[in-house]
Specification:
Strand content: over 45%
Oligomer: single chain
Strand order of the largest sheet: 23-24-25-26-8-29-28-27
Shape: elongated
Largest sheet: 8 strands, mixed
Number of strands: 29
Radius of gyration: 25 Å
Number of helices: 3
């Protein structure tokens, strides 16, 4: 179960259980002794209302949280937690309470309330779903240069550092890790994965290469210099794309989720969900950090999404249709996949699965 599902399960877990008489009074009394008082009773319910009646729910909307006090209990205080963090401590006179979501991330946001009353506590749970309030810009491209690429390389991850491409390729019995000379496409160094593994996303951390696998729930760490495998680690989700930013790994799994992992023990720190103004953006695949933004291939499309990975908002879509000319396509040619960034030279590179070229591109705004 991934982190997202666990949070949804938690948000839905505040259920009402009551034990009716069934002719076995002693059994019921024993059961009741083992059930916490806060679950036996249900005196309150939570009503969540979007104050913008014309909105489907987007970041910057305001929501009213109203506690319905069905049994007229004396409420002492209410603690509101949003997205797992304490948000407000309220007196009864401050209810209903208005939540302003302008600083919230996109996606499904769990809400939990603790209602303290008459020496007891009752827990309430709900959630709100927030689309992005940003309408993404449309961008196109200009090819600045092109480089030879092995058209048998089923590209899953692409990195550029110190003048070389580092590439992860996929497919069972064909997956590899490679160091490639950009000017010629020559494979200077390679490591072949065992046949059971399907190589996926790749990133560089210090002097190590970190590679994901697809459905094996495994990742590998290699010495960047000699490609010696030095560590294996478990991955809770499928592995698709992988990037590195500020001592944290960012992992995609083909959904709208981006998971933040600790770089040494690979534990999940948190996650965000990627939304545009129309809803969740799924099939996030190979990724790259460029100038503080996450760029992600959207699998089975010619689009790259530019994402603010702090809140999950899509800022722009880059349309790369026809970047690979028809005369370079074969029956083996697959979809766009692979983004690399030369930070020193401020160069962006893209390629695809079984493409004969890597393209250096310049991003351009689409004229309105």
């Amino acid at each position: 179960m991934n982190l997202f599902n666990k949070i949804l399960l938690f948000s839905a877990s505040f259920l009402f259980f009551s034990c009716g008489q069934n002719g076995n009074e002693n059994k019921n009394q024993t059961q009741n002794q083992n059930v916490p008082q806060s679950i036996q009773e249900k005196n309150f319910s939570l009503k969540v209302s979007n104050l913008d009646e014309n909105s489907i729910g987007k970041v910057a909307d305001k929501f009213s949280l109203e506690i319905l006090n069905e049994n007229n209990k004396n409420i002492d205080s209410v603690v509101i937690s949003v997205d797992g963090k304490k948000y407000a401590v309220l007196k009864p006179s401050e209810l209903p309470y208005i939540v302003d979501t302008k600083s919230f991330r996109c996606g499904m946001i769990p809400l939990t309330l603790q209602v303290f009353y008459e020496g007891k506590t009752e827990h309430l749970g709900s959630s709100i779903k927030l689309f992005s309030e940003v309408i993404p810009k449309r961008k196109t491209y200009k090819v600045v240069a092109s480089y030879n690429h092995d058209n048998q390389a089923y590209t899953q991850g692409l990195q550029f550092e110190d003048g070389f491409f580092y590439e992860s390729t996929g497919l069972n019995n064909k997956s590899s890790l490679r160091k490639v000379k950009p000017e010629t496409g020559e494979i200077l160094q390679s490591y072949i994965l065992e046949g059971e593994y399907f190589g996926e996303g790749l990133t560089i951390v210090d002097n190590k290469l970190i590679q994901l696998t697809w459905k094996n729930h495994k990742g590998f760490v290699y010495d960047k210099k000699n490609f010696e495998k030095i560590q294996e680690f478990d991955v809770a989700t499928e592995g698709w794309g992988l990037s590195y930013y500020n001592d944290t790994l960012l992992l995609t799994d083909g959904s709208e989720n981006i998971y933040f992992l600790e770089k040494n023990n690979f534990s999940t720190l948190k996650f965000i969900q990627v939304y545009d103004n129309l809803g969740p953006v799924k099939m996030l695949n190979e990724t790259e950090i460029i100038n503080g933004r996450l760029y992600a291939n959207i699998y089975q499309s010619d689009l790259i999404a530019e994402i603010d990975f702090h809140n999950g908002k899509v800022l722009s879509y880059i349309e790369l249709t026809n970047i690979l000319p028809n005369n370079l396509r074969t029956d083996n040619t697959d979809v766009l996949n692979g983004i690399a960034y030369d930070k020193k030279g401020d160069r962006i590179f893209v390629t695809g699965k079984n493409w004969p070229k890597v393209f250096q591109i310049q991003l351009l705004d689409v004229a309105k």
